[in-house]
Amino acid sequence: MRSLAAVESLGIFRGSFRSSSAASKITGARESRLPKSADEELVALAQAGDRGAFEELIERHKHKAYHIAFGFARNREEAKDLSQEAFLKAFAYLKKFDGRSSFYTWFYRIVVNVCLDHKRRSKRRAADEFDETSESRIEPSHQMNNPLPLDQQVLAGQISLRVKTALQTLPAKQRTAFVLKNHQGLSIKEIAEMMDTAEGTVKVHLHRAVTALRRSLAEFA
């Protein structure tokens, strides 16, 4: 993927999705130089040319960025590529960050826009793609030791497929609001800031999204 290659060409991004143990060692090594700095302090350092400061921003936000991207892409590799693309764009536009909103809001708005652009460019995913969100909510030991009866497994698979298909067909703003609220647990206020809209508008998007999903799942009620 071209965007991934571009990200990897920047030394600051190499290994940004390391294992948690490796990441914790690196983060610990940085703490003496960047002790508990606020995001905005790190941004100021990064804007002045300190790439280590931007690496720290990556460490702080990479997992949240990945999970938001996964909520849209429903595929691990695509979610990784999209979140890295978002970091690349944030790095490219960092000089334009003026502090009128928090870095958190500014960056996650980039993540969401990258995901929406990708969705507009992409064809609908294959109908039999595995729903990894459901997988992530069940511990492996529970899956092995307490398998569902076959009929319940089939029903769960049908529901997961229907939910995923319904999500893919929602209008972009409804899907964005739903993913941020139900997959990421953000508040209405946070979603409104990220989508740059009124809180009442977010509530309308959520209501319409939930109504559409309920309609799609009516046969399973």
Can you summarize this structure?
It contains 12 helices and no strands. It is mostly helical.
Describe the 3D structure.
With 221 residues, the chain is mostly helical. It folds into 2 domains: 1-126, Rna Polymerase Sigma Factor, Chain: A; 145-221, Orthogonal Bundle (Arc Repressor Mutant, subunit A), CATH 1.10.10.10. The protein has helices spanning 2-8, 20-31, 39-47, 51-73, 76-92, 103-121, 132-136, 140-145, 150-169, 172-183, 188-195, 199-216. The longest helix is centred in the N-terminal third of the chain and has 23 residues, at 51-73. The protein is elongated.
Tell me the fraction of residues in β-strands, as a range: under 5%
Give unreliable regions as ranges.
1-7, 9-14, 18-35, 124-144
The structural class is mainly alpha
Radius of gyration: 19 Å
CATH architecture of the largest domain: Orthogonal Bundle
CATH-defined fold name of the largest domain: Rna Polymerase Sigma Factor, Chain: A
Q: Provide mean pLDDT, rounded.
A: 75
Terminal CA distance: 41 Å
Order of helices and strands: HHHHHHHHHHHH
What characteristic shape results from the CA principal axes? elongated
**Biggest sheet, in brief?**
none
Text of the CATH class of the largest domain: Mainly Alpha
Oligomeric state of shown chains: single chain
Number of strands: 0
Q: Helical element count?
A: 12
Domain count: 2
How much helical structure, as a percent, in the residues? Answer: over 70%
CATH H-level superfamily title of the largest domain: RNA polymerase sigma factor, region 2, helix turn helix motif
